[in-house]
Structures are given as structure tokens and as C-alpha cells.
């Protein structure tokens, strides 16, 4: 594993035959007294290698984000006041998509918007239904 420098390779024929035999017989990685020890590239690579590590990615828990999907469908089918139920349904679907993509902040923002549209649609539709029942019970001709 010890490589000879190029200058000593040329000088090796000058050595006596007994020392040349000694150099040929001892092929250890310790080095000889006649030439300087130069570490080979394999020992350098072994020193730079590190132990492998395991990386576990923990994604945020997206099950806590409510998408208000059923409430949006109910508002879309029964209480679709000025298409607010449809807008709430669109935001509910966006929440589901962002939960699948692990975009927690975007899912929370869209969930708040879907809830706002659901509340508005439900309140306005309920108010209109109450007004219709009042006008059916007490027609305007009685005033």
C-alpha cells in the first residue's frame, strides 16, 4: 500500500542486490527505511468515510385540519345562497388537496376561508327561509 515517489523509482536500480531482494520480499504497508512512507489513496479514503445514518422525516399531522367537506356539500345542494355554497365547496376541495401535499399552512388558511363561506351561506339562507315563513304566515295585505 506504500507507493514509491517517482524520484526513488529511478534510484532503485542503484541499490545492492541484497537490499533489492529485501524490498521485493517485504510488501508491507509499514514502509521501508530506504524510502519515505507515502500513504496510498485507499487508506485516505477509509479515513474520510463516515458511518451511515438513518434520516426519518416527520411530516406535520394534517388530520387536525378540518376541511368542512360535508357542510360545504350540504350548503351547495340545499342552501346555495348566491353561490356561496359552491365557493365553500371549492375551498374545501383545496384543503383536501393541500393536506395530501403536506402544505399545512395553506390547508389551514383555506379551511378558515371554507368555514367563513359556509357560515355566511348558512346564515343568509336560514335568514331568507325565516323571512319566507314570516311572509307566508303574515302576508303584506294584513298591514
UniProtKB/TrEMBL annotation:
Subcellular location: Membrane
Swiss-Prot/TrEMBL keywords: Membrane, Transmembrane, Transmembrane helix
Domain of life: Eukaryota
InterPro entries the UniProt entry points to: CD225/Dispanin_fam, IFITM_antiviral_protein
Membrane-spanning parts: 68-93, 114-136
Chief localisation class: membrane
Protein name stated in the entry: IFM10 protein
Gene name linked to the record: Ifitm10
